[in-house]
Amino acid sequence: MYFNPYEKYPTKGPEDIRTHEEDLFGVPKDKRISDGVYRGIIKFGSLSGYGSLPIPLDVEKIPMHLAVFGVTGSGKSFNTGYLIEKLVNIPKNDSEHVSYPMIIIDAHGDYLDYVNYVDENGLENLDWIKSGWIQRYVFPNIYIKPEFRRSELVKPIGINLDLLNYTELAEIIVTYFKGTTEGAEQQISGLIRVFELIREAGYSSLHDLFYRDKDILSEYVDRLQNEGFFASTIRAINNQLNEFYNLEDKYKLLSIDSPLKSDKFVDDITNNRGIAIIDFSAEGAPGVDLKTKQLVMTYLATILFNKFTEYKLNGIQRYLLFIIEEAQNFCPDRSYPIASSLAHSKLSAIATQGRKFGLSLCLISQRPSFVDRIVLSMCNTFLIHRVSPEDVSFVKSVTGGLPQSLAARLTTLDTGEVIVTGQMVTVPFPLVVKIPKEERKVKPTIGETNVVDNL
Questions:
Q1: Quick one: which of 95, 146, 255, 296 has the most CB atoms within 10 Å?
Q2: DSSP for 296-328, written as a single string
């Protein structure tokens, strides 16, 4: 290949001197299964300016976490969907391809086309998808509609408070009410003591009390006055519990029968290489406020972290990729103006410790500078689309620096173009990649319009 400094891309050299991809991209020869197929290597798009020259990405580096940046209209969601398509068909050996287990927090319905595609065609008829199952999870208040219940691929979101330890539950209740645990140490201690008293009284399930016997909870809160707690603390705890009860009154999250209410869900998705799409879009979560979505995120992050810790202690190796759209809403930087960040601490724990036992994050954001810097610093692979000028310096910093020639293009990348850099890339420098639209197997429908037809 020849490089012309006056052209945007290097030009192709003669066919007879083109370098083999093992040498060009540094793919280890011992990973070769057959010509162009390598164990644990997915082919992603094409090197921009070269027509058809797919770049290899190493799946073994996914546990080191990923981040995807790009403004609206940059091709961020399209390319993430393309990445998902690659991750459901990973070469393992000459006779087997496998899928990476995934949970996807879908903020805008960008990935629901995959559920519809499987529903229409049948997973058994789709050889290129190696997942054991794919399911869409919606809030219970919308799941009751017949059009949702008819599909076996649609399930309700539910939470089981008994899967949380007392400290986790107390902190969630306080944060759900006031947006932070700062200055609420006495209230958290009081709630923990209430839970201990209930257990000592012989009740086997705190979860059931929260939606079946609230009066019992209130009775034990009142007993805190005999435990040395101030009246003001007891009043605050009652206020926090009353707010928390709204989860059931408004959304039926506690009483609904849902696969998410058992930690066996984690066994199922990792054993069978499933895909769970948590639908936070206006269709799957109508009228649901951000703090309730954060609570669901906190619950999922907690049961995932606890279960993967258990796997590690028992010598069991499992893997899962937790893909989170609009990551700034769930692990925000302090500069981001949202009321609370319930999920922040658990996502931070996954970012710092998850790589040790196979639990990975893929954080997606149109405003990366609003995502917690410490969490992002744990990501070791970046897919960078066109970004806002306000985010350029942050992106250069968090990715460890980009060549000036690429940094200068961060705000002008074409739609669908992406700078790929980090551990998954098999070369030690960033690559500019273009994802041809025709390579998406499932064509996205979100964002389509019929303006002229309806005028």
A1: 296
A2: HHHHHHHHHHHHHHHHHHTT----EEEEESSGG
Instruction: Say if residue 233 is in the same domain as residue 279.
Output: no
- Note whether 386 and 68 are within 8 A (CB): no
Reading the block at residue 270, the tokens are: 């990792």
What six digits make up the tokens of 162? 């008994």
> How far is Cα 282 from Cα 153, in angstroms, rounded to an integer?
19
Farthest CA pair distance, the chain: 87
Q: Which residue has the tokens 């940046």?
A: 69
Rounded Cα–Cα distance for residues 57 and 49 (Å)? 19
Q: Are 217 and 124 in a shared domain?
A: no
d(CA 38, CA 444): 28
Which tokens belong to 79?
């390319």
Q: How many structural domains does the chain have?
A: 2
Return the structure tokens found at 235.
């009043």
Backbone angles phi, psi at 32, to 5 degrees: -70, 125
Same domain, residue pair 377 and 418: yes
pLDDT per residue over 331-356, tens digit each? 998 877 664 567 888 899 999 999 99
CATH, residue 43: 3.40.50.300
**Phi-psi region at 228: left, alpha or beta (left = phi > 0; alpha = psi -120 to 50):** left
Q: Are residues 338 and 446 in the same domain?
A: yes
What's the gap between Cα 275 and its chain centre? 11
Range(s) of the domain holding residue 28: 15-149+262-453
Amino acid at 26: G
Contact 410, 432 (CB under 8 A): no
Q: 């990715």: which residue's tokens?
A: 399
Judgement on whether residues 51 and 188 belong to the same structural domain of the protein = no
Amino acid at 295: L
pLDDT tens profile 78-134: 999 999 999 999 999 999 999 999 999 999 999 999 999 999 999 999 999 999 999
Query: In the numeric block, which tokens belong to residue 208?
Result: 């059931």
Give per-residue pLDDT as tens, 121-136.
Answer: 999 999 999 999 999 9
- In whole angstroms, give the CA distance from residue 368 to residue 392: 9
Whether 257 is in a domain gets the answer: no
Instruction: Find all residues with CB under 8 Å of 139, minimum gap 6, and list them.
Output: 156, 157, 251, 253, 284, 285, 286, 288
